[in-house]
Every structure is written in C-alpha cells, then in structure tokens.
Amino acid sequence: MMKRALVTGVTGQDGSYLAELLLNEGYEVYGMVRRLSWENYERIAAIRDAITLLEADLLDEYSLLTVIEKVEPDELYNLAAQSYVPTSFDQPVLTAQFNALGVTKLLEAIRRVKPDTRFYQASTSEMFGKVREVPQRETTPFHPRSPYGVAKVYGYYITVNYRESYGLHASNGILFNHESPRRGLKFVTRKITDAVARIKHGLARELRLGNLDARRDWGFAGDSARAMWLMLQQDQPDDYVIAMGETHSVRDFCEIAFAHVGLNYEDYVVVDPHFYRPAEVDLLLGDPGKARTRLGWVPEVSFADLVTMMVDADMRRVADERPLVGGYV
Ligand code: NAP
Ligand code: F7E
C-alpha cells in the first residue's frame, strides 16, 4: 500500500520541494492549506493535480484533528509557520500562536487520532541566535534573538517532550537558511537576486539592504527537503542540524550575484537602516556531521551554484515578465 504523507505549509518554499520529493518516492501526498481570499498555489502548480489539498489552519485545533482523521498519515511534516523574522517583531503574539502553540495542537491531534504517525518539526538555526559556540551543533545551547526564534524554541521542545512523554516518533530538523528560486521575495537572498535581474534589465537602479555583515550558512531548499524525509525514515526519532558547514556574509552574496551578470554590487547597493532588526543574529555556521553520518545526507548544490541558480531564474523571469513567485516586495 502507498504510504500517506501530510505536509503543512505545502504552498511555501519548502513544502513545494518536499511534496515533489514525496511524489517521486511513491507517496500519496496531502497538503494542508489555509483559506485565503485568493489561491496562492504558484509553487505547487506543476504538481497540483498529483496531490490532494485539504483546508485547515494551525490556529484551529479542530480543523487539524479533522484533517488527521481524514488522511490518517504515516508521516506528517509540519512546515507551516509565520517564517519571516522581521514580521515576528511586529506580530509577536500571532507568531507564537502559529509557531509555538500550533505545534502542540498538531502533536496533540496525532496523539489522540493516530499516535504511530511519524512527525517532522521544522526547527531552525534561529534558535541559536546569539551563538554560544561556533560551529553550532545539536548540543549547542539556544539563545534566540527574535520572537520567531523564541517561538521556534518552544516548538522544538514540545516536539522533544511528546517524544519523551508519549513515545511519538517525532523529530526536529534544525535547518540553517536554505534558499531557491521559490524563496519569498522579502528574504535577503531572493531580494538580492530579484534586484540583480531588474537592475540588469534596466527596471531598477538600486537595491536597499540592511546589515551587509550578517553571516549565514546558506544551502539549497531541495537538499533540505531530502534531509527532512531521511529523518522520518530512521527507526528512532532524533534531532539533526542540517547545514552546509560554510558561512558567508550578505555582502559576499551580493558580490557573487551582481558579478554573475557583469555588475559590481558596490555601484548599486545602498545601506538603509530601515532594514536593521531590533536584535540581530550576527553569525550562523552549522556542523552537519551527525546528519552526514547517521542519515547519509550530503548536499548536492554548492553555495556558489545556489547564487547563480537564483540569479539565472530571476533573469529569465524578469525577461519573460512572468508573474512573481513568492509575493511582492
Ligand atoms: P514559507 O515559504 O514562508 O512557507 C510557510 C508556509 O506556512 C506557507 O505554506 C504558509 O501558507 C503556511 N502557513 C503560515 N501560517 C499558517 C497557518 N496559520 N495555518 C496553516 N498554514 C500556515 O516558509 P519556508 O521557507 O518554506 O519554511 C518552511 C518551514 O521551515 C517554516 O516552519 C520555517 O519557519 C522553517 N524554516 C525555514 C528555513 C529556511 O531557511 N527556509 C530554515 C529553518 C526553518 P500561505 O501560503 O497560506 O501563507
Ligand atoms: O535575513 C540580513 C538580515 O530575512 C538574513 C527564515 O527562513 O532563515 C530565515 O531567517 C540576514 C539577516 O533570513 C536585509 O538582517 C540585510 O541577518 O533572509 P533573511 P533570516 O532572518 O536568517 C532562518 C533559518 C529561518 O528559520 C527563517 O524562517 O540578512 N539582511 N539586509 C536582510 N534581510 C532581509 N530580509 N532584508 C534585507 O534588506
């Protein structure tokens, strides 16, 4: 019998890659979507007819119970979240309701309806925040720097707690930043590659950014989706850091992205304090050793290839004037 997987956040960047991977692995794929006044299925357009979409919301535990009763999933991947760090400073309560309590609601629904469901929680390197050691690994203490990070620490520990209390097969992927041509346009990588394309095509003159010295361990979202799936194929649930093991600054990203189309970023990038955060995460660098050894996970796309993949995709989109994927700046 085909395995059934339920993906929350299927309309997001990661959900779309994961749903594709699960289809390729032979799963019956169900995606949870919330009701919006306008369908935002751009990222899953290519697989829309191959998956089943069901409406529910992380805020509404009854809708989660109903979806789990209907699907009876073998695996549930919880990718739904308010995922933009600056918004978490403006909407701290809503962020906690989605990213913290939403996880409890899902775990509790699984416990009541189908406790043998394997559960993946989308945890994040933002939990390390003001980092206590470099590189960060599974044992590094957390020190989140935003309401987003704080809420995700709750999501992490409630997942560990349901594993320890009720024996659920529940795992945390502690994923470092991962990007793609499907990344939302407000995140810094996609903001840069979109601007490079618009500047190159004469549609924009400058790019306004915040802290150019922030450093991140950036990887490709398709590689990250494989890591999520691998975690749920293990006999025992556990927590894993997923990272490239390299760190680069926002400035480095700009330099490579502009240079790829023959431009010098210094001629176009303007630092604008409007994009500074109340508290910054200065440096992230992950140690993916455990994932490599235990899961056999190895990323296939390098940092440089990721940047050029994103620039090339935005160059094609801007040239074709295709509708934007991931929202509008
Ligand atoms: P994303 O593109 O922003 O997608 C978020 C998804 O969550 C969207 O499908 C969104 O639906 C859905 N969602 C938001 N609020 C919801 C609610 N109340 N009920 C139901 N669905 C809701 O994020 P992503 O980059 O794919 O990230 C996926 C997950 O990994 C998130 O939990 C994020 O926090 C975490 N994470 C991401 C990274 C990264 O670098 N990308 C790293 C570590 C962890 P709509 O389409 O309706 O808005
Ligand atoms: O910022 C700096 C900014 O918004 C990266 C989410 O997926 O990854 C993501 O969170 C860095 C920060 O991602 C601009 O200050 C400078 O230091 O692309 P970002 P993020 O905050 O790291 C983690 C792992 C998640 O879990 C989150 O869900 O870039 N930066 N100038 C800027 N950032 C933005 N957005 N815009 C700027 O103009």
Specify the CATH architecture of the largest domain: 3-Layer(aba) Sandwich
Number of helices: 10
Q: Are there runs of 5+ residues with pLDDT below 50, and where?
A: none
Helix coverage percent: 40-55%
Cofactors, ions and other ligands in the entry: NADP nicotinamide-adenine-dinucleotide phosphate, ligand F7E
Over the alpha carbons, how many angstroms does the gyration radius reach? 19 Å
CATH superfamily of the largest domain: NAD(P)-binding Rossmann-like Domain
* CATH C-level category of the largest domain: Alpha Beta
* Number of strand segments: 13
Given helix and strand content, the structural type is alpha/beta
- Main beta-sheet annotation: 7 strands, parallel
Set down the secondary structure blueprint.
Layout: E1 4-8, H1 13-24, E2 28-33, E3 52-55, H2 61-71, E4 75-78, H3 85-90, H4 92-113, E5 118-124, H5 147-166, E6 170-175, E7 178-179, H6 188-200, E8 207-209, E9 215-216, E10 219-220, H7 221-232, E11 239-242, E12 248-249, H8 250-260, E13 269-271, H9 289-295, H10 303-320
Parallel strand pairs: 1-2, 1-4, 2-3, 4-5, 5-6, 6-11, 7-10, 8-13
Antiparallel strand pairs: 9-12
Bound molecules: NADP nicotinamide-adenine-dinucleotide phosphate and ligand F7E.
Structure notes:
The protein is an alpha/beta fold and 329 residues long. The chain folds into two domains: 4-179 and 219-242, Rossmann fold; 188-216 and 247-283 and 301-321, UDP-galactose 4-epimerase, domain 1 (Alpha-Beta Complex). Helix content is 40%, strand content 15%. It has ten helices and 13 strands. The strands form four sheets. A seven-stranded parallel sheet has the order 3-2-1-4-5-6-11, sandwiched between helices. A two-stranded parallel sheet has the order 7-10. Helix 2 packs parallel to helix 4 and helix 8 crosses helix 10 (303-320). The protein is globular, with a radius of gyration of 19 Å. The protein starts with a strand and ends in a 9-residue tail after the last helix. Bound molecules: NADP nicotinamide-adenine-dinucleotide phosphate and ligand F7E. Ligand F7E binds next to helix 6. The site of ligand F7E has 22 residues, from helix 6.
